[in-house]
């Protein structure tokens, strides 16, 4: 990004110091940065000691064949033992591991002792089905406790799981089963979503008719909704019939630290999904450390709630592996935030006294749109830390989150990471960092990240470029499943010896990092690079705008011109006057070069199921093209709604 345009970029002057009490008792203090800088590998070796190893590792990192890392490779451990059994052995069997809340209002309390029994039974069941260490198991479940039991049962057996998000189609499921050559699929009849029972089993039946899925010999079906299911004798088996009759005892075997733990597919924008491979010792070390550090978790008193689905990496690292390795008590919720009413999340937070809450900007903006009065009806005074993940959070949404959910008291930690990084990489520390709305700020202790220009030169403070990671980290992906070459090409070819994250970023005058969105989302207007994120944040800072998505549309005069799609707040109505006002507002915030050429008010924005705006489709609209593939949208009909708006465009 050129420096002249940067000089105009959004200035964020607000700072929030850590609350004194929190800082005084924080798990991690400022000296951690210094210690980690002085001896990075020593720092990670120290963090690995949070885990219970059957054989202590003597070697921290083997980087003799970069970028193929081996962490703690001569150590041996069992991941499920670390997440379950050791807490029971330490006398915490009665501690609640999971407060489960179903969408219809049913609930279940699962202690660590319960979890040990459930996971052991499930591990015995998988063993009976012939699952052995190294075999892949596909998990296609709603957000119910069996999803956690199934993942940990696989971990216990050293059988890598591949969790496929329950909202994905039979096609997506089939591709993932084929690529991982799964032997078993664990699913359910269905799950509750938006007030109704939605089926899952039919998608499995359909996926298994596709060529390349023949390795699947068993389908284990959890009964959740009671809806009718088709049955294939000899292949299908009910979870309750198989698992409930198993022994509650299972002795976990220790595996090498580099034993594959899971494969998780990321769709990316092009090509077939990438099977991101994570292994055991390094992954668990960093998942546990970051959960301890970023959320300041106190296992005896905190109630943690991460709203992600288990089908995303956030659910893997901050529902299953990080919190359970740390012996946390957490909430797990099956449904959507607005079912049966828009205060559902806050009702649950009040019910369980949630102290730490972790969600995505898209959800925060939806809550903003629904109105301040909704969270105001609930007692959220137990909350002490709020987290954000998944995309850049607009400063206005950040401030709203802190004010209306955090009661103006709680630090907000904006955590940057990826499926590939396995755990959080860049984030404030709640007891240390004076936070800045909209910035993920600083790499965590032990993490090395910076911003470089096209020639791989580190940019000075106050400049922008590409985010890179300059040293290996314990929970890094080890490769793309079955495709080492693609691993090299995607992440390690752009800059020598540096991991290319694919995100644009800038360093502000204090050296803090701001994420600017995927590099494919940066616009080029009259020779200036302008980030979609910053124009969107400028729009959202106007009182009439709840949400905004910005794209660059081909333009004969200026290469690209800025086209903005906005969702208006509450009572604001679209008018020519408002459109002019919004354009002027952006010009005033960011400079005239960033002024959108067009502003269209729409009712919805096209989002992927993980809540990311599909700018590619908006670009199709802005450039008046036939729409590309819409199959990964949460709701493909929103594109029709948006297209109807077009005649009113200037
Ligand atoms: C991409 C990774 C990490 C779990 C959820 C997403 C974007 C993620 C932030 C943040 C700005 C962010 C990046 C990243 N992203 N967190 N705090 N600020 N951008 O995992 O699906 O692998 O997506 O999400 O663009 O590269 P993912």
UniProtKB/TrEMBL annotation:
Mg(2+) binds at residues 540, 542, 545. Keywords: Acetylation, ATP-binding, Ligase, Magnesium, Metal-binding, Nucleotide-binding. GO terms for biological process: acetyl-CoA biosynthetic process from acetate. Its cofactor is Mg(2+). InterPro entries: Ac_CoA_lig, ACAS_N, AMP-bd_C, AMP-bd_C_sf, AMP-binding_CS, AMP-dep_synth/lig_dom, ANL_N_sf. It catalyses: acetate + ATP + CoA = acetyl-CoA + AMP + diphosphate. The keyword Metal-binding applies. Its EC number is 6.2.1.1. GO terms for molecular function: acetate-CoA ligase activity; AMP binding; ATP binding; metal ion binding. ATP binds at residues 390-392, 414-419, 503, 518. Residues 31-83 form the Acetyl-coenzyme A synthetase N-terminal domain. CoA binds at residues 193-196, 314, 526. NCBIfam families: Ac_CoA_lig_AcsA, PRK00174.1. Belongs to the ATP-dependent AMP-binding enzyme family. This is Acetyl-coenzyme A synthetase. It comes from Streptomyces chumphonensis.
């Amino acid at each position: 990004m050129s420096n002249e345009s940067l000089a105009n970029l959004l200035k964020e002057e607000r700072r929030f110091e850590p609350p004194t009490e929190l800082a005084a008792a924080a798990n991690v203090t400022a000296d951690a940065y210094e210690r980690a800088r002085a001896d990075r590998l020593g720092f990670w070796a120290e963090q690995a000691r949070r885990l219970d190893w059957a054989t202590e590792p003597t070697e921290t990192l083997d980087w003799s064949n970069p970028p193929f890392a081996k962490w703690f490779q001569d150590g041996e451990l069992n991941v499920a033992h670390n997440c379950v059994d050791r807490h029971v052995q330490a006398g915490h069997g009665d501690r609640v591991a999971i407060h489960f809340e179903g969408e219809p209002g049913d609930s279940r309390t699962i202690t660590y002792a319960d979890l040990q029994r459930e996971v052991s039974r499930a591990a015995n069941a998988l063993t009976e089905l012939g699952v052995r260490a190294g075999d892949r198991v596909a998990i296609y479940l709603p957000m119910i406790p069996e999803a956690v039991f199934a993942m940990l049962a696989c971990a216990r057996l050293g059988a890598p799981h591949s969790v496929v998000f329950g909202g994905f189609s039979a096609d997506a499921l089939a591709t993932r089963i084929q690529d991982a050559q799964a032997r078993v699929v664990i699913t359910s009849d269905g799950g509750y979503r938006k007030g109704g029972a939605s089926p899952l089993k039919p998608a499995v039946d359909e996926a298994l008719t596709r060529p390349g899925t023949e390795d699947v010999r068993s389908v284990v079906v959890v009964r959740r909704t009671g809806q009718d299911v088709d049955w294939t004798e000899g292949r299908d088996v009910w979870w309750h019939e198989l698992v409930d009759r198993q022994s509650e005892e299972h002795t976990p075997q220790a595996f090498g630290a580099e034993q594959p733990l899971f494969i998780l597919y990321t769709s990316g924008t092009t090509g077939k999904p990438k099977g991101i491979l994570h292994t055991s010792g390094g992954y668990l070390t960093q998942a546990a450390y970051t959960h301890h550090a970023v959320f300041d978790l106190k296992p005896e008193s905190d109630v943690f709630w991460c709203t992600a689905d288990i089908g995303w990496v956030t659910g893997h690292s901050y529902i299953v592996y990080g919190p359970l390795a740390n012996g946390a008590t957490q909430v797990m919720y099956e449904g959507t935030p607005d079912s049966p009413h828009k205060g559902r999340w806050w009702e649950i937070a009040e019910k369980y006294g949630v102290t730490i809450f972790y969600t995505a900007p898209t959800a925060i903006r939806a809550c903003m749109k629904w109105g301040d009065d909704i969270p105001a009806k609930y007692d959220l005074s137990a909350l002490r830390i709020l987290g954000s993940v998944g995309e850049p959070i607009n400063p206005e949404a950040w401030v709203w989150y802190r004010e209306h959910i955090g009661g103006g008291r709680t630090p907000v930690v904006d955590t940057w990471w990826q499926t590939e990084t396995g755990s959080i990489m860049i984030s404030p520390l709640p007891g240390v960092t004076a936070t800045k709305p909209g910035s993920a700020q600083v790499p965590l202790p032990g993490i090395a990240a910076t911003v470089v220009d096209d020639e791989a030169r580190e940019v000075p403070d106050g400049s922008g470029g590409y985010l890179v990671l300059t040293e290996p980290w314990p929970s890094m992906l080890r490769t793309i499943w079955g495709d080492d070459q693609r691993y090299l090409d995607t992440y390690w070819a752009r800059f020598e010896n540096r991991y290319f994250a694919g995100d644009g970023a800038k360093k502000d005058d204090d050296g803090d990092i701001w994420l600017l969105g995927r590099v494919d989302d940066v616009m080029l207007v009259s020779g200036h690079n302008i980030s979609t994120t910053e124009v969107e944040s400028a729009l959202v800072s106007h009182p009439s705008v709840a949400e905004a998505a910005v794209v660059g549309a081909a333009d004969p005069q200026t290469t690209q011109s800025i086209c903005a799609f906005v969702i208006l707040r509450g009572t604001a109505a679209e008018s020519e006057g408002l459109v002019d006002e919004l354009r002027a507002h952006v010009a005033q915030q960011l400079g005239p070069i960033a002024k959108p050429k067009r502003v269209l008010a729409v009712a919805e924005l096209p989002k992927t199921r993980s809540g990311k705006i599909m700018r590619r489709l908006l670009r199709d609209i802005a450039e008046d093209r036939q729409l590309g593939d819409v199959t990964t949208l949460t709701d493909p009909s929103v594109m029709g709604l948006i297209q109807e708006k077009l005649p009113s465009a200037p």
